[in-house]
Amino acid sequence: MQYENCFKICKGRVKSKVRLKKSFGQHLLIAPGILQRIVEFAEIRPGEVVVEIGPGTGNLTRYLLKTQLKKLYLIELDREMVELLCKKIKDPRVELICADAKSFDFSSLSEKRLKLIGNLPYNVAGLIIENTVNFKDLIPEAYYMVQKEVAERLKSTTSWLGTFVNTFYTVDYLMTIPPRFFLPPPRVYSALLVLRRRMEPALDIEPESYKKFLTRLYAQKRKMLKRKIKEEVLIKAGISPNKRVEELYTEDFIKLFRYYSVLFEE
Ligand code: SAH
After folding, report:
1. Exposed (0-12), middle (13-18) or buried (19+): which is 206, by Cβ within 10 Å?
2. Which of 58, 67, 208, 219 could covalently link to 44 via disulfide, CB atoms 3.0 to 4.6 Å apart?
3. How high is the pLDDT of residue 159?
4. How far apart are CA 142 and CA 104, in angstroms?
5. Pocket test for ligand 1, best of 18, 76, 143 (most atoms within 8 A of CB)
């Protein structure tokens, strides 16, 4: 599916032609001031290794390459965009990867530390963030543009994903971006978020089993916790068995998971 036949894009000048596809969530950020601010927020230091998710036609990429980063990996799923980028970007620090960021194995890059950045495709932003958290040991910071509502939800514990992210990262809201700065403009407002990895207390929690535990607790949110998890565990963790999942704080989930794992070895 595509939006309109053809957009001609390149910093306002007519240069390259590309079809923008709705199925890939392609809304290009075209405001130089916003692109510049995103890169400033990311505070890229000399020698850093950066991964951009969904570079599209390379609007943000160009600003990233003005910094002194050591290496820039671009992960883009749309082959047409990859071909365009390949022609356009000649910087030797860039490595283009045609892959799906929802399931990309960041450890395959053989880097010790990655800074992630991207104007994410909004239809799959949650799944890309989930995959980022799976590689928390390699990723101390991520700067992501998402739909504003998603940004607000990620800052709370109203969804399992919010709790999952908040367990390993602090989430800060950096700025709101109105639709007019994108091509084509999305129907929603956008927001830039930063995820900064927490040092304590969650470092030793294994994401996969924690994810299973959380999705189980978040199923049928209205049910009291004692209907989902043994009262013995709740009491040991100091949580009232009559509470509902949305009444818990991130720290409660961490505590509960620890008792749950010890008692049931799950
Ligand atoms: N960064 C660009 C484009 C953002 S639009 C800009 O700001 O102008 C989102 C981009 O993510 C598109 O280029 C789209 O093709 C790409 N994309 C969509 N799904 C993806 C996925 N699963 N993995 C990696 N890239 C994806």
Report:
1. exposed
2. 67
3. 92
4. 15
5. 76
pLDDT score of 6 more than 90? no
Q: How far apart are the first and last CA of the chain?
A: 43
Nearest-angstrom CA–CA distance, 166 and 154? 8
Locate the ligand 1 atom nearest the alpha carbon of residue 78 and give its number.
15
CA 100 / ligand 1 centre spacing (Å): 10
- Name the residue among 203, 217, 208 with its Cα closest to residue 157: 217
Distance 25 CA to ligand 1 centre (A): 7
Q: What is the pLDDT of residue 120?
A: 98
pLDDT band at residue 153 under the 50/70/90 scheme: very high
Query: pLDDT by residue (tens digit) across 84-96?
Result: 999 999 999 999 9
User: Over the stretch 119-140, which tens digit does the pLDDT of each residue have?
Assistant: 999 999 999 999 999 999 999 9
Cα 120 to middle of ligand 1, angstroms: 6
Nearest ligand 1 atom, CA 24 = 18
- Kindly give the distance from the C-alpha atom of residue 220 to the centroid of ligand 1, in angstroms, as a whole number: 33
pTM, entire model: 0.92
Tokens of 24: 């890939």
Q: Ligand 1: which residue has its CA nearest to atom 6?
A: 28
Please report the atom of ligand 1 found closest to the CA of residue 30. Answer: 8
User: What domains are defined for the chain?
Assistant: 6-203 (3.40.50.150), 205-259 (1.10.8.100)
